Structure formats: C-alpha cells, structure tokens
Amino acid sequence: MSEIDIKDIWNYANNIIRTSRKMVNEGLRSLELSSSEGNILLHLFTQKDEVRQEDIVEELDISKPAVSRALKSLEKKGYVKRNKDLNDKRASRILLTERAREIKPKVELVYNEVYSIAAQGVSGEEIAFFINLFSRVSDNFSLVRSTTKT
Predict the structure, then answer these.
(1) CB 147: neighbour CB atoms within 10 A?
(2) Where do the domains of the chain lie?
(3) What does pTM read for this prediction?
(4) pLDDT (tens digit per residue) in 50-97
(5) What residues pair up with 84 in beta bridges, in sequence order?
(6) Class of CATH domain 6-118
(7) Which residues pair with 81 in a beta bridge?
(8) In sequence order, what DSSP letters do the residues of the chain get, joined into one string?
C-alpha cells in the first residue's frame, strides 16, 4: 500500500464534510432549514432541558455569530424560544418548542439517511474503529485548542 500523506487525509475529510453538508441541506430543504439549523436542532433534541447558548457554541464548536444567526432564524420559524438566564442576564437559554418536537422525526431521518449512505459497505467493527479513531483525533485537536486559548 502506498503511503498516505496529509493531503490525502485533508481531501477525504473535506469531501466527507462538503458532501454530507450538501446532502443534509437538500434533505432539510422541504422543512426550510439549513444544515446549520438542523445541526443545532439535532443537538437540542439530545438535551433534556434548556441549553445555554454559550454551551451550543462550545459543544458544536460553531462561532458565536453563526450560532446567534441560526438561533434567530430558528426562533423566527417557531422552533426555539430564547429565555434570559436567571443567573446571568447576558446569557440566553434555548428551549425547543412543540413545533420543533413535531419535526424531530423528519430531521432525524435526514441525518440517518446521510449516515446510511456513508456506512454502505462498512462493517460495524469498521464503524466502531472509525468512531474511536475520530474521537481520539478530535480530543487531540481539543487539547491543542484549549492550550492555545488566550
């Protein structure tokens, strides 16, 4: 097997990200949602209570302005409500609406379809290895990012 260098990894990673984002955007189009809005909703679906806006920024590693724009759009569409944090008046807490809960199965279906396409011809063991590997690589990047924050 020939040696793989960073350009190969970079190209594969970019292709996966670009193609999956395009597929998610196409899948969410009928709901009038973008992939960034869908990603935030998907994240909120996994939470039990209200989520601080800052936590969304941190947990999804999306810029504050991008999260703010997506939440503003989701709020306008009736999928989330923002409440002021009682402990920190500068912060907002995000709450899913009933309308968001109604579209949850459709949003999840879009992401599950993308996953199904990605997993074609890949064994369960390979998927587990992939997740473990990407988790470790992600942790490496998070460690570097946390030590370089000013």
Answers:
(1) 7
(2) 6-118
(3) 0.82
(4) 899 989 998 888 899 999 999 999 999 999 999 887 777 777 899 999
(5) 92
(6) mainly alpha
(7) 95
(8) -PPP-HHHHHHHHHHHHHHHHHHHHHHHGGGT--HHHHHHHHHHHT-SS-EEHHHHHHHHT--HHHHHHHHHHHHHTTSEEEEE-SS-TT-EEEEE-HHHHHHHHHHHHHHHHHHHHHTTT--HHHHHHHHHHHHHHHHHHHHHHHHH--
